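Supplementary Note 3. Input sequence used for the single-chain structure prediction.
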Amino acid sequence: MTINSIKPRVYIVEEQANPSSDFFILPVFSTSTYEIIRCRFTDLPSIAELSGAIVVLVRYVPPRWARLIRLVRRQLRALIFFIDDDVLDLHAFADMPWRYRLKLIRLSASRLGWLKRQKVTLWVSSPYLQQKYASWQPRLVMPTSVANATDLRGLFYHGSASHSADIRWLQPIVAEVLQRDTNVAFEIIGGQEVSRLFKHLPRTSVIHPMKWINYQSFIAMRQYHIGLNPLLDVDFNRARSYTKFFDITRCQAVGIYSPNTACADVITNGQDGLIVDLEPSKWVDAILMLTKNETLRQNLLQQAELTLQNLTTRAQQSHHDLLP
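The predicted structure, written as discrete structure tokens, is reproduced below.
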């Protein structure tokens, strides 16, 4: 490879993955002409790696990067600062929550002099910002629509605080599934303890607990593929009914259930759901099998819907005997 054929490196410096980068910055450099390297505040390349590179600071100037850029500024091909909010004017964010104001002051507004000394190229997201900072000769960047992740498989577990032991058991299983299949997204309902367990996992949403009537509306607007219902063999779980089968099937999802439970009593393994021994590796394998086999999942779901109808009919027929 000749020197001229080497792709220019673009270091996108961001607090974390964010809409500012996805809507505005990444599309600019998305051609094969550039090698894109996304860096968090603490991800520092060597001085040699920055030679001839483009550095894009998204909204903020983190201290470590400010010190590094000061050392290598003359070696950079370009230094760009991008804003899609007015983060440089103290008055513009005076009404924001105080923690957010302190963050903007520390990482953006207080860097005004530094940005000018480093002779950054200012990129902005709107004509308003372009006009306000006209003296900087800013470049207007138009947003590009972010492609929907249409191939994602929705995996979910919706259990109350009474399932805390089941949730802790499930965490490493979900972590491995997400690591092995990047087309899986996971959703769980829970408070602070659940959030601490799951918030660091990729493609994971921790939903705040809600009242039953709100939950009904919530699941009516969601789409899932696989529902999890692990029940450890403890006294409290032995008393549970098979209503989780109803919830999972109503969500258009296929359920994976524990053996020797009420749900396992009303379904047939491999026909209208999966019954899997409480061994983590087996649950990982079962989940990944369903994420990758659309035909199997659809067949299981169709039969599960028939089972749900039959169970509902049986329940309605039994109601007469209950009436006084």
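The radius of gyration is 26 Å. The mean pLDDT is 91.
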